[in-house]
Design goal:
mainly alpha, 6 helices, 74% helix
Length: 117
């Protein structure tokens, strides 16, 4: 395998997006546990698990035809999505430190993808 097709990159990109929404719903579902462990079964928690598992489908489809060394680091894009979802849904602050860390994640993804060509 000499080159990772764009379709594989898009599939892994989509998988990271779906997985990051899974984290959002897990947090929403976990908030119900403040009222007691008997609330472990709730739709947000179940949907979060479903999204995490569902993100495996496009991921597996993507790595099937692409280079794992190029595609696997793209999973870390989920950190970037999660930062924005955390701000949007939970009003969590986006600090300079978080932005700096995300810049490093992006730089790493670019370096790996460029090095893979």
């Amino acid at each position: 395998m000499t080159k990772t097709p764009l379709s594989s990159i898009v599939l892994v990109f989509v998988a990271s997006l779906i997985g990051s929404f899974g984290a959002v719903f897990l947090k929403m579902g976990a908030a119900h546990l403040n009222r007691g462990f008997k609330y472990i079964v709730n739709w947000q928690l179940a949907f979060g698990i479903f999204l995490f598992l569902g993100s495996s489908v496009p991921y597996v489809m993507g790595i099937n035809k692409g280079e794992l060394s190029v595609l696997y680091p793209m999973v870390s894009l989920g950190y970037i999505w999660t930062l924005f979802w955390s701000r949007l849904f939970f009003n969590e602050p986006i600090t300079k430190g978080k932005l700096g860390a995300l810049a490093m994640v992006l730089a790493g993804i670019v370096c790996i993808s460029v090095g893979g060509r």
